[in-house]
Automatic annotation (TrEMBL):
Keywords: Glycosyltransferase, Transferase. Coiled coil: none annotated. Residues 8-152 form the Phosphoribosyltransferase domain. It comes from Kineococcus aurantiacus. Gene3D superfamilies: 3.40.50.2020. The lineage of its organism: Bacteria, Bacillati, Actinomycetota, Actinomycetes, Kineosporiales. This is Phosphoribosyltransferase domain-containing protein. GO terms for molecular function: glycosyltransferase activity. PANTHER family: HYPOXANTHINE PHOSPHORIBOSYLTRANSFERASE (PTHR43363), HYPOXANTHINE-GUANINE PHOSPHORIBOSYLTRANSFERASE (PTHR43363:SF1). The keyword Nucleotidyltransferase does not apply. The keyword Nucleotide-binding does not apply.
């Protein structure tokens, strides 16, 4: 699928390049996270890729719901169970990973929770938008367009009785 002026289309192949490029930037910066914390669902592919590229064995996930569709969100990000016990990460270098810093509110909730638990936290995303209120330390690219990610572009399989794609 070709990019349109309204959308940024990320393919699996380009995503692989993004992971390597982002990992190289992080490594060149001298940052060596001990744990990667992926924000489910969109941040999980990047978290997995960076875990391998940065040779980080310890990973965790945190479930946060904010987007309910294209440009449709809940009033506030909501942390859903199950969740990681952040007190176990106190005093450690943790890289929080998500797909996009759009408003920055999802990333902000997780970064704030980590900091309050005594975690030394930085963040990384595939895309940063100019509208974000929390600029991650690491971003592969910046865009102001809606992003089509390869893991969510097609939506659920039709066998489920078909809902629309959700971010």
């Amino acid at each position: 699928m070709e990019p349109t002026p309204e959308r940024e289309v990320l393919t699996w192949s380009t995503f692989g390049e993004a992971v390597r490029d982002l990992a190289s930037r992080i490594a060149r910066d001298g940052y060596r996270p001990e744990v990667l914390l992926g924000i489910a669902r969109g941040g999980l592919p990047l978290a997995a890729g960076l875990a391998y590229a940065l040779d980080v064995k310890e990973t965790a996930t945190i479930n946060v719901e904010f987007y309910t569709g294209v440009d449709s969100r809940l009033p506030e990000p909501v942390v859903l169970p199950p969740s990681v016990d952040l007190s176990e990460l106190a005093g450690r270098d943790v890289l929080v990973v998500d797909d996009v810093a759009d408003t920055g509110r999802t990333l902000g909730v997780v970064v704030r929770m980590c900091a309050e638990a005594g975690v030394r936290v930085r963040s990384a995303v595939v895309y940063r938008k100019p509208t974000t209120t929390l600029a991650p330390e690491y971003a592969w690219r910046e865009t102001d367009r809606w992003i089509e990610f390869p893991w969510s572009a097609q939506g659920p399989v039709p066998e489920l009785g078909g809902g629309a794609a959700s971010a």
